[in-house]
Amino acid sequence: MSRQLRGLYAITDSMLLAGGKLIPWVDAALAGGARIVQYRDKSGDSMRRLDEARELNQLCQHYGATLIINDDLPLATELGVGLHLGREDGCLRTAREQLGPHAIIGATCHADLNFAAEAEAAGANYIAFGRFFQSVTKPGTPQATPVLLEQARQRFKLPVVAIGGITLNNAPHLIGAGASMLAVINGLFAASSANEVEHRARGFTELFQSN
């Protein structure tokens, strides 16, 4: 599993990927080497979310990648896929009990190593820190630093995810500090075409191959 939890972690955005972009642009990200796709949609349209998540799961299976559902344990349970939980969005232990021992479950830790320790004890497979740079998606979250990544790598055996304002320009420093995965939204999907998404994804993937 540790080999699987390394590389580009693509997070969808319902605004960026509106208008029929979701499936083809995620396809492009996967073609470019993304290893994990997190389906993040905060809308109340449960049927559309189920349909989209099913399509994304089929795409991930085709590429040998992993689908993670953001903050929706029932949807993750229905599809038999992984789950990511924010600090205030559910109980990790309950999720582990419901999804079973083989599901990949991640936890948002912001810049808090103590919460990361709690998440590890509760059964998380990876711990996510950030934001590291100015973030369009979560501008008000506490800022993390590369030093925090180094401390997390020394303290925990779990894969460490960096998130928040990550681009191809600032990504190398985070990988060098110990990030196992880079979770990217705008830096990947705020593009003019699916071809550009794939190009960016390949750029992130190559950074991991050279480290």
Task: Let me know the largest β-sheet.
Answer: 8 strands, parallel, barrel
Strand content: 15-25%
Overall outline: globular
User: What is the multimeric organization of the chains shown?
Assistant: single chain
Q: Over the alpha carbons, how many angstroms does the gyration radius reach?
A: 16 Å
Report strand order across the widest sheet.
1-2-3-4-5-6-7-8
Question: Percent range for helical residues?
Answer: 40-55%
Quantity of strands, as a count = 8
Query: What structural class is derived from the secondary structure elements?
Result: alpha/beta
Query: How far is the N terminus from the C terminus?
Result: 19 Å
Task: List the helices and strands in order.
Answer: EHEHEHEHEHEHEHEHH
> What's the tally of helices?
9
Average pLDDT value? 93
> Can you tell me the residue ranges where pLDDT is under 50 for at least 5 consecutive residues?
none
Description:
The protein is an alpha/beta fold and 211 residues long. The chain is 43% helix and 17% strand. Strands 1-2-3-4-5-6-7-8 form an eight-stranded parallel beta barrel, surrounded by eight helices. Helix 1 packs parallel to helix 2 and helix 1 runs parallel beside helix 9. The two termini are 19 Å apart. The mean pLDDT is 93.
